[in-house]
Each structure stands twice: as C-alpha cells, then as structure tokens.
C-alpha cells in the first residue's frame, strides 16, 4: 500500500502542476487579449491614443474617454483609473479634459480623476498607487453631509520629466514644474518649481537645483555613471557576470 500511496500522490501532484500551468497560460492570454492599444481599443473610444501606447489588462475605471487624450509610447499599468467629468455620459464640450503626454508611465493602481482639466507632461513616471485629482470635497455647511456638498475644482498641471513616487497624492490646484521628484507618500498642493524634490504631507521643497550652485543641499550619493555609447547587450551581460565573480 505505501507504494500505491506514493503513486497516487505523484499523480495528484502532476495534475495540480498541469492545472496550474493551464491557469497561468490562460491568464497570460486574457491579459494580452484584454490590453488596450490604438489598434485594439476595445470598448474604449479615447479622444486620442498615440502609437505604441498600451493599457494593461485588467483596466481600472475608465469613463469620459472621448475627453481623454493619451500620447504616444505610454505604459498604463493594471487597475489604473482614468476619468474625465464628474460621472459617465456627460457632454464635456469640444476640448479634452485629461491630457497625458508622450512616454508617460502610470504605475499599477494609480488614479487620475479629471473633473476639470488635468495635464501630465511628456516622460513622466508614476509609481504604483499615485492619486491625482482636480476635485476636493467642500465642508462649508456644517449641517449638510460633506459628500452632498458641491465640490471645489481646480486644474492640475504636472510638468514634463517628473518622477512621482509610490502613493503620492496630487491635490486640486497643484502646478508641478519640470523634472520634479515627488517623494513616496507626499501630498502636493500649490506650486512646485522646476528641478525640485518635494516630500512630506503636506509636501515641502527639500532640495532644489540651480545652474550656478547645482543641487542644494548637495546630493549625498555620486551620480550614476552612464553606459558608454556603442555598448551591446551582450557586453553588458558579460560585465554583469564578471562583477558577480569579483563580488564577496
């Protein structure tokens, strides 16, 4: 009997392995098929979606698509919410409400809520679970539930080349300059100058750059050495192997 038990256990393990591989293969097919591109928009009819842009499946909540313009070569992660207008099926006029530039990466689970205009410049990178909104709740009337009071709306602008850290919140009226680093978990409102680093809740400027003095306060780590031109992927792999051999 012990021999038969081992046979049955091996057969059960084999069946579980086959089922697992089938599930993974099926899910990979679903993700590929459900992804949205300019050539395969599915049910979504964006105002524009650029060449090479892809929305991973499963998508988050998307409505007001005709008033959303996505640039070229963007990567929109899974479960990213993109909305234009307060609710679906509104006529928002002739102009786009949400503009996303070229080469933008929106991390998994991020939200951009554009009840009024939100603009994201080129080559911005968002970590996971970033929240951008042009709307805030009002609480002027102390006798009416806050959720029933008409919200306040202010446009949001995020300049080109920014890095928005995981879990950051960009509030209505924020005007973020070019090449700004927003630290993870920061809560940003108001104006942020170009070439700054902001952190905290509420966010404050913790580092700035100017042409005469460089970064203030100075960076604590040396700048990364760029890869020389002409280096091939094969040479990089060989260098990585040598580094591992020389390591401790």
From TrEMBL:
<dbReference type="GO" id="GO:0008374">
    <property type="term" value="F:O-acyltransferase activity"/>
</dbReference>
<dbReference type="GO" id="GO:0005829">
    <property type="term" value="C:cytosol"/>
</dbReference>
<comment type="similarity">
    <text>Belongs to the transferase hexapeptide repeat family.</text>
</comment>
<dbReference type="InterPro" id="IPR051159">
    <property type="entry name" value="Hexapeptide_acetyltransf"/>
</dbReference>
<dbReference type="Pfam" id="PF00132">
    <property type="entry name" value="Hexapep"/>
</dbReference>
<keyword id="KW-0808">Transferase</keyword>
<dbReference type="InterPro" id="IPR018357">
    <property type="entry name" value="Hexapep_transf_CS"/>
</dbReference>
<keyword id="KW-0677">Repeat</keyword>
<dbReference type="InterPro" id="IPR001451">
    <property type="entry name" value="Hexapep"/>
</dbReference>
<dbReference type="InterPro" id="IPR011004">
    <property type="entry name" value="Trimer_LpxA-like_sf"/>
</dbReference>
<keyword id="KW-0012">Acyltransferase</keyword>
<protein>
    <submittedName>
        <fullName>Acyltransferase</fullName>
    </submittedName>
</protein>
């Amino acid at each position: 009997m012990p021999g038969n038990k081992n046979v049955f256990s091996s057969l059960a393990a084999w069946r579980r392995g086959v089922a697992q591989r089938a599930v993974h293969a099926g899910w990979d097919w679903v993700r590929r098929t459900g992804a949205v591109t300019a050539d395969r928009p599915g049910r979504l009819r964006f105002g524009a979606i650029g060449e090479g842009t892809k929305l991973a499946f499963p998508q988050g909540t998307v409505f007001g698509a005709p008033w959303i313009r996505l640039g070229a070569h963007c990567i929109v992660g899974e479960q990213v919410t993109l909305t234009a207008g307060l609710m679906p099926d509104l006529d928002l006029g002739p102009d786009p409400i949400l503009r996303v530039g070229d080469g933008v990466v929106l991390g998994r689970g991020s939200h951009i809520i554009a009840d009024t205009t939100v603009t994201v410049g080129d080559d911005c990178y968002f970590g996971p679970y970033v929240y951008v909104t042009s709307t805030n709740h009002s609480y002027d009337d102390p006798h009416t539930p806050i959720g029933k009071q008409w919200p306040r709306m202010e446009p949001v602008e995020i300049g080109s080349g920014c890095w928005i850290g995981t879990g950051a919140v960009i509030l209505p009226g924020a005007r973020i300059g070019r090449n700004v680093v927003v630290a993870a978990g920061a809560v940003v409102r108001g104006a942020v100058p170009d070439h700054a680093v902001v952190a905290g809740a509420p966010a404050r400027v913790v580092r700035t750059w100017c042409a005469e003095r460089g970064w203030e306060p100075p960076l604590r780590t040396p700048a990364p050495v760029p890869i020389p031109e002409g280096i091939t992927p094969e040479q990089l792999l060989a260098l990585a192997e040598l580094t591992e051999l020389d390591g401790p």
